[in-house]
Specification:
The structure is a single chain. By secondary structure, the protein is of the alpha+beta class. It contains 4 helices and 6 strands. It has one domain: Nuclear Transport Factor 2, Chain: A (Roll), CATH 3.10.450.50. A 6-stranded mixed beta sheet has the order 2-1-6-5-4-3. The model has no long low-confidence stretch (mean pLDDT 89).
């Protein structure tokens, strides 16, 4: 009889411990599911942004990009704000009217989305002082985008402009020494 009085509390403690672990595991699983859902939504937003850019749908871009948006890149000397981004897109599509973004890989981690893509288009009008060449050029890129409250807040891009300009007929030469 005394043995059963000792076993019963141990069984209850064991059940309580297992029950608590299951609740903790379930809470952790639910948190992971919620995080995965947010990451999928963020990836979808990035896809929507590139689709809107390619379609020239600035109304959609207005919905997807935060008012205090900022883009930075090694090739851009200052932060590019939303209005400047829109102007850059419009100017670029004049020179490359068939420009399209081909997304090759997307990875999300929390509020950040990394995108590997190739950008392709035919050079049909002057671009940054380069007369039209008719060349179908490719500009590979890696972008890191931060999504806040369902909108693009920050954007960092690295693009192969050297290779791009070489496709357009530019040459890289060493600087000549000053005399």
């Amino acid at each position: 009889m005394k043995k059963s009085f000792m076993i019963l509390p141990m069984v209850l403690i064991l059940c309580f411990m297992v029950g608590c672990q299951d609740k903790e595991a379930m809470a952790e699983l639910e948190a992971m599911k919620a995080q995965a859902e947010v990451e999928e939504q963020n990836k979808a937003i990035v896809y929507e942004v590139f689709t809107a850019i390619d379609a020239g749908d600035f109304d959609k871009l207005e919905e997807l990009i935060a008012d205090d948006f900022a883009l930075s890149a090694p090739s851009v000397p200052e932060l590019l704000r939303k209005d400047m981004l829109f102007q850059h897109i419009k100017t670029h599509y004049v020179a490359f009217p068939d420009w399209i973004h081909v997304i090759e890989d997307v990875i999300a981690d929390g509020d950040k989305v990394a995108v590997k893509l190739a950008q392709n288009g035919t050079h049909k009008a002057e671009y940054e002082g380069i007369p039209p060449t008719g060349v179908k050029a490719t500009l590979p890129a890696m972008h890191l985008v931060k999504i806040v409250d369902g909108k693009v807040m920050e954007w960092f891009g690295v693009e192969d402009y050297l290779g791009f300009y070489m496709q357009l007929g530019m040459e890289l030469k060493p600087k000549e020494e000053e005399k």
